Amino acid sequence: MLILAILLGMLTAPQAQQVRLPRAKSPVTLLGFESSDATNGWTGMKCVLSKTHISEGASALGILYPKWDGGKDNQWLMASVAWADGKGYAVKDWSHYGKLGFDAWVDGGEALEISVELRGAKEGVSFTKELTVKPGAKNSFEISLEDAAALIDLTGVQSFGIYGIRPKGDITLTLDNVTLLPGDKLPLAVFDLVYPNYREMIFPGVSNIQVKAELQTGDYDIDPSDITLSVTATGKRAVAANQAQATGNSVSVSLPTAKLPFGKVSVTAIVTHHKTGRTLATNTWTLRKITPAEAAAFKTYIDENNRLIADGKPYFPIGWFGNTSLDQFEEIAGGPFNTILPYGVNGKTKAYVTRYLDRAQAAGMKLIYCMNDIYPTATFYEKTGWEGIMGNSNIADAVVNAYKNHPAVLAWYLNDERPKELMPKFVNYYKQAGTNDPGHPCFIVIYNLSELKYFPSTTDIMGVDRYPIPSEPITTVTKEMKLAKEAVKGHKPIIAVVQAFGWYQYNQAFPDRGRTPSEEELKSGRAPTYEETKNMAYQAIVHGANGLLFYCYYDLRVQPQYKEYWASIKTIASEVKTLSPIILSTHNRGAAACSPAEAGIDTLLKELDGELYLIAVNTSDKPCQATFDVKQALQPKISVMFEGRFAMEVQDTKLTDSFKPLEVHVYDLGPAKN
C-alpha cells in the first residue's frame, strides 16, 4: 500500500554567518558623514549633509530621490560611493565581517522601497538587497555578508549604492552609521545527509545510507584529525553502525541498508573528540525504507543520482513556462518539447484544467502544476476562493488532491522567486504538498542567487532563473548552476530556466510586450540571440542541469523576431532531446583537460552504452582554437554531432577544433575505454 505520509526529518538550524578567519572581533564604521566633505564622493542622486535624523555624531547623509518617471526615460534612481583608495569609505576588505548595518529614515507618510547594491572588482557583477524603509521612525537594517559573498568577492568591495525603487513623489532618504559588524562564531560541525536524497526515503536497490560532517575547527582550537564521526541506524530489531576519523575539514560515513527492515529507520550522527571521548555535536534523522511495491507506486520521484524518474524511466524535462491557452499548448506540443509549466491554472475551472491535462497526456507531455498563486502569503484567491473552497491552505490541499492522480502531472510548482524571509512558510507548504501527494516531487525557482542556500528544505527540485542577457555576463548561467549545486550540496536535481524574452518587455511604462522596441530599449533589454540561447542551455547542461525550461512562451511569441527565434529554439531543444539519454547517463567522467586554459571553454565527458561523448561550450565572445585531452586513445576521425563534419585534428588522446564566439560542439568520441 502506498505511503500516505512522508516523514521529512529534522530541519537543520540556520548556520551562523560564514566569514573569513580570523573573524573580526569588533565593528568598524564604514561611513559616518561627519566631515564637511562627506558628500564629495557620492554620485547619481543629489546628496547633502543632514541634521534632521542622526544616529551618531552631528550629521547624516540625505539622498534626494525625484519621483519615478514610470520608466519612460530608462530612469535609474541610484546614489553611490566608490571606495576610491580609501577616499570613499574606510575598508575595502569586508570578508572578515558578518553583516553590513545602517540606519535609515524617510520623510513624509509613504514607505520607500530601496535596493542596496555592492559591487566587487569583477565588472558587471553585483549583489543587491531590497529593503522597505518605513516612515516616521528610524529603520535599522542588517544585511548578511554571507549572502553577498555568494555573488561578489568581499575582499575588494569597490562601491556601495542605494537605489530608490519607484518613489511615488520627491522624497529624501536619510542614511547614517553604515557599519561592518562581526560575524557569529561558526558551528563546529554541520551535518549533511547525503543519502537518502529524496524525502528521507531509502529506495530499493540503494546499498548505503551516507552521512557527512563539514568541520569548522578554526574557532575551537581542535585538530580535525582528533575528530571522529559515528553513525548509527536503528530499525525494528536491526542496528547498523559505523564510524570514521576525520582527515581534513570533512568526514563521511556509510551504512549498509540491506539488513535494515522496511519502515521507520532512526539515524543518529555524533561528532566526538576521540582522545577525550567528549561529544562535540549531534544530529538525528527519521528515515523510511520503502518496499519495492511502494516504490513502484510512485508516479514520479528522484533517484539516488538526482534524476527525475517518471513512469519508471529517467526523464529530462525540456519545456516552457507558459499560460493556460490550449492554442499555445498545441504550438509547443508540436515541437521537440516534453514539459509545460502553465501559469494561472487555478484561475480555470476543474473541467478546463482536466481537458488541458488530458491533452498533455495525449501529446506525450508532462505538466508541472503551478501552485505559486496559493502559497501561504498569496492574495489571489482571498475573496473569490477556488471551486467554493476558501483559504490558501484549504485550496492547496484541494488542488493537489484534485489532480495528483492524473498521469500528465510531473511535479508541483510551489515557489516563484519568493524572498528568504518567507522560507519558514515554504517549509510547511512543501510538507503539506508532500503529505497530500507522496507520489510527485515539488519544484521551486529562485532568482536571487545569494538566497539559494536558504531554500533546499522547501523543495525536491531546485530551479534557477537569473536571465543575464544583456546586462550580465553570459557565464552567469555557470555561476547560478554552481551556487545551486552548493546550496543543495549536490543532493537534489537542478532545473535551469533559460532566458527567451527581452527585459524591455517588462518596462511598466509600456505594457504592450509585443511592441517593436526602441534602440535604447534594445541596448539595455534585448532578447538573447540564437547563439546566446544555445550557449546558456549548454552551459547549464555541462554544469549538471537535470532539466531545461525556457521562459517564457507567451513573451517569445509576441517578439518581432518570433518566427526565426521560435525555429532556432526548437533546433536547440531537438539537439538536447537527442542528447538526453547521454545527459541522463550516470557514467560521468567530468571535465576534459583543455588548452589553452584561458580559452574559456567548459566541457563535460559522458559515457553511454560503451560510447564516449564530449560537450564543449565556448563561453567567450571571442573565437578560439582549443585542444582537449580525453585521456584515452581516439579514432583518426571524430564526428561533430549535428554539424555533419569531423574535428579539425586528432592525435593520440587529443582532439583540436575551432570555435566561433559562444559556439557549442558535441563530439562522438567512439568506444569508451578504461
Tell me what the structure shows.
With 674 residues, this protein is α+β, with helices and mostly antiparallel strands. Helix content is 17%, strand content 35%. The chain has eleven helices and 40 strands. The strands form eight sheets. It has an eight-stranded parallel beta barrel, surrounded by six helices. The longest helix is centred in the last third of the chain and has 23 residues, at 562-584. It is globular, with a radius of gyration of 27 Å. It starts with 27 loop residues before the first strand and ends with a strand.
What would the keywords be for this entry?
674 residues, alpha+beta, eight-stranded parallel beta barrel, six-stranded antiparallel beta sheet, disordered N terminus
